Amino acid sequence: MGVNSDDPPVDTEEAIMRATYRALCNHGYANLTMQAIADEFDKTKGVLHYHYDTKQDLLVSFLEYLLSAFQENIAVDGADPAERLEALIETLLFGPPERGRFDHWELTTAMLEIRSEAPHNNEFRRQLSRNYETVEATVVAIVEAGIEQGIFRDVDPEQVATLLLASINGARIYQVTLERDDVAEVTRSSLDAILEHWLYCPDELDSGANADGTVGED
Amino acid sequence: MGVNSDDPPVDTEEAIMRATYRALCNHGYANLTMQAIADEFDKTKGVLHYHYDTKQDLLVSFLEYLLSAFQENIAVDGADPAERLEALIETLLFGPPERGRFDHWELTTAMLEIRSEAPHNNEFRRQLSRNYETVEATVVAIVEAGIEQGIFRDVDPEQVATLLLASINGARIYQVTLERDDVAEVTRSSLDAILEHWLYCPDELDSGANADGTVGED
């Protein structure tokens, strides 16, 4: 299981969320019944129903919970736009440098299953959209800062954000659904090549900015 | 429904596949029972069981059926690698120029639901992998031809293929799961920018090769 067993005691709602995560990982979305969740939980099914009127309500809270874990994970600091962008790509593709609440590939699988319900579920779609917009705004802000500082060319920040997020989303989904374990790695090297040719200013490239990520401010 | 109503009469297996597609579109994977499929079918549930021992067997055949429709769609002709690559991107993102057997976004949604089962299903994963490898080989062959003809730089064809396929997969999934209808369009413009900066040789760019897609052979 991806949840750390040495975590401190948790409240009931957190315990229900973790039980839902385990049930989802073990049984898949199609078999995610209230009973399957209760089986992963040290209290009765009645407690689930006390906290959530319907399975749908529980799953909406669960998606909020996953997305908040995700947003914690992608917080990247640092003043240098090139470093921040590379750290963000690394975290989105492979998970946070310090292990988060969940195993990265388990979380990717769980998110894929929830996502596959979104075409039929307005509430899921709304939450996923807000999440997307938050991450997109993060990338756009980094790219704008890089252009401002003369590190990046005058690219369209929205184009960069869309391509990064779509390729990372696609690569993570391939990674858990294909018999290939190199898709995320190859995607990272492709994104490195793209940043080099599309984003970084040639002068900065010549000074080795892309190789070690330590670009000086202009 | 995406299936053309003016198609000629079909055999029983084709009729079962179409019924499965309709049931999947109407009810989602989580509610895709043999009864739901039978309800979309003009014969009895017994006929389903006569052809397929289990729902699992039926779904394996259904995935083969979807992937074969997909492979028909991505067949691109033409001698010029730049044109072939752009036609392939267009078809993968938006569907074939002449309407195929299915509506493109319905097919994307159905494939997403099947894909979300793949982490738990070896047979689905195997089929999706073979499909991925076929499309990947198509992109690699186009890129190799472009390098050979001096139209493309000496890029790594596998990196190009992985990035194109991951970003298109991710963009299609965003398109059907977010409250945004522009992700596929913005991804196309991002891919145009990438091809321009990463792939096309500068000389060819200067001669307008990227703008009208009519690159002369060297």
Automatic annotation (TrEMBL), chains A, B:
The keyword Transcription regulation applies. Keywords: DNA-binding, Repressor, Transcription, Transcription regulation. Residues 10-70 form the HTH tetR-type domain. The keyword DNA-binding applies. This is TetR family transcriptional regulator. PANTHER family: HTH-TYPE TRANSCRIPTIONAL REGULATOR BETI, HTH-TYPE TRANSCRIPTIONAL REGULATOR RUTR. SUPFAM superfamilies: Homeodomain-like, Tetracyclin repressor-like, C-terminal domain. One of its GO terms (molecular function) is DNA-binding transcription factor activity. Gene3D superfamilies: Tetracycline Repressor, domain 2. Residues 33-52 bind DNA.
